[in-house]
Amino acid sequence: MPQRDVVVIVGSLRRRSYTRRCALALMALAPESLKPGLVEIGDLPLYNQDLDPDSPAPAWVAFRDQVRPRDAVLFVTPEYNRSVPGVLKNAIDVGSRPYGQSVWSKKPAAIVSVSPGAIGGFGANHHLRQSLVFLDMPVLQQPEAYIAQANTLFGEAGEVNNEATKTFLTGFMAAFADFIERVKA
């Protein structure tokens, strides 16, 4: 199996967020066939079509150039008001433009939603899925990943404090690797 370059996008800007900790855990638990790497979204100016394509913000160009060559995308997001954070939606919009030049199209994707609450970001997970369908991104259907009570599961550097969670996340990443190969075949 070839090694696949996976962009990891974290929908939380806090350096010590549970979402970022989960993303670090997922990256550490990825099989050798995946090469995950974070791409930061916090410095992206709000998307404004008036500036694109004639004078796009340099941060937009850099973001698109980082995502475009990757084989797949792993979105790890918290839930804000039963949806994704605005910073994540902005990154999705930046990557989908200019029209006809989306960096997302045909890239296999997976979603992990994270919350200290009991339902694990279910609303954000499904709201994000709706956008990815429009962006022509095949999305891993099973296993679904709603990480509830995340405040009890991860250490500062993304280490997993719960063996059942570690087993689940390892299996999730293996399933994502298999899914990427099926989509790319």
Name the features.
single chain, about 180 residues, alpha/beta, Rossmann fold, five-stranded parallel beta sheet, 5 helices, globular
Topology:
Blueprint: E1 4-10, H1 18-29, E2 34-38, H2 58-67, E3 72-78, H3 86-96, E4 109-114, H4 122-134, E5 145-147, H5 163-184
Parallel strand pairs: 1-2, 1-3, 3-4, 4-5
Low-confidence stretches: none
Largest sheet: 5 strands, parallel
Cα separation of the termini: 11 Å
Number of domains: 1
User: Mean of the pLDDT scores?
Assistant: 96
Number of contiguous helices:
5
Total strands:
5
Helix fraction? Answer: 25-40%
CATH topology: Rossmann fold
**Helix/strand order, N-terminal first:** EHEHEHEHEH
Largest beta sheet: strand ordering: 2-1-3-4-5
Portion in strands? 15-25%
Radius of gyration: 16 Å
CATH architecture term? 3-Layer(aba) Sandwich
What overall form do the CA principal axes indicate?
globular
Structure write-up:
The protein has a single domain, classed as Rossmann fold (3-Layer(aba) Sandwich), CATH 3.40.50.360. The chain has helices spanning 18-29, 58-67, 86-96, 122-134, 163-184, and strands at 4-10, 34-38, 72-78, 109-114, 145-147. The mean pLDDT is 96. It is globular. With 185 residues, it is an alpha/beta fold. It contains five helices and five strands; from the N terminus they run E-H-E-H-E-H-E-H-E-H. Strands 2-1-3-4-5 form a five-stranded parallel sheet, with helices on both faces. Helix 4 (122-134) links the parallel strand 4 (109-114) and strand 5 (145-147). The longest helix is centred in the C-terminal third of the chain and has 22 residues, at 163-184. The N and C termini lie close together (11 Å).
